[in-house]
Amino acid sequence: MTSFVIYTIIAAVITYIGYQFFRDCQIDKNGVAAIAEILESRVISANQQGSSNVFFVLSFVDPFTHENKTIRGTETVPAFYASQLQAGMKVKIRYLKNMPDKMAFIFDK
Fold it and tell me: So where does this one cross the membrane (predicted)?
């Protein structure tokens, strides 16, 4: 019984990591670039490796439908880029056309 639970947990972790890679690949391959305005941003937590978990609310105009869209979510970002996620600033994003909540930030280096 114990080994079944351990294997199930390991399988769940591997599935989650695989999904994250799949999502990132889909965004890179099929994503639409846009400029979003940051309406709200706050750091939820940080870790010792220099990354921050950030809650954000973004607003952008869909380049296909010209509708104003809002995205709420959390993302883990390197602390070096956290200063680019201030309320009122504009940031480049890439999102999936049919699922705008699946997005990634494009940071200036």
Answer: 6-22
Residues 54-68 pLDDT 10s: 999 999 998 888 899
Short-list 77, 81, 108, 98, CA closest to 31: 98
Entry pTM: 0.75
- pLDDT recorded at residue 61: 92
Q: Which of 40, 37, 39, 34 is nearest to 93 (CA)?
A: 34
**Which residue ranges make up each domain of the chain?**
1-30, 32-106
Tokens of 109: 């280096």
Q: Token pair of 80, please? A: 């070096």
CA distance linking residue 45 with residue 74, whole number of Å = 11
